[in-house]
Amino acid sequence: MNKCDIASFLNTANSKEQKTLLLAHKMCSKGIHRMTPIREAVLLILMREADGIKAYDLLKRIKLIKPKAAPPTVYRALEFLITKGIICKFHTSHTYSLIKEYNKKKTKLMLVCPLCNATAQIQDSNLKNSLMASLVNTGYTSNSAVIEISVVCKKCI
Ligand SMILES: [Zn+2]
Description:
It is built from 6 helices and 6 strands, in the order H-H-H-E-H-H-E-E-E-E-H-E. It is α+β, with helices and mostly antiparallel strands and 157 residues long. It folds into 2 domains: 2-98, Winged helix-like DNA-binding domain superfamily/Winged helix DNA-binding domain (Arc Repressor Mutant, subunit A); 108-156, 2-Layer Sandwich (Dna Ligase, domain 1), CATH 3.30.1490. The N and C termini lie far apart (48 Å). Bound molecules: zinc ion. Zinc ion is lined by residues 113, 115-116, 118, 153, 155-156.
């Protein structure tokens, strides 16, 4: 019954979302841990939340399709997707968001507004390289797939 509900939810994916799910499957084809229906459902919800979603709100949404889902189910799915470089967590807003351009090796610069939680990705490789060089010069390093920059967005200024 619950599996059917997840399957029905996953069937609502449009062609662009199906492409992303397929790509996520490919990214997870190596190693012992694969995409599961619950991980797919979490990913599909994140695809539809442009400004990210908090874990508690995500759990509420998952409970609509899998009523017995407990917080660890959602957190494990989120951890898995973070480890695979498919999603990221914004510490400023405590939200989870899809990484639009997957490439685990490339660090992304993400802007997050602390007032409304809006997010945007910076595509400037010169800025990124300069920031990474400054980090190293200052004695810091980052293994994170995402560097979060907390800045107020246009809407909130
Ligand atoms: Zn804002």
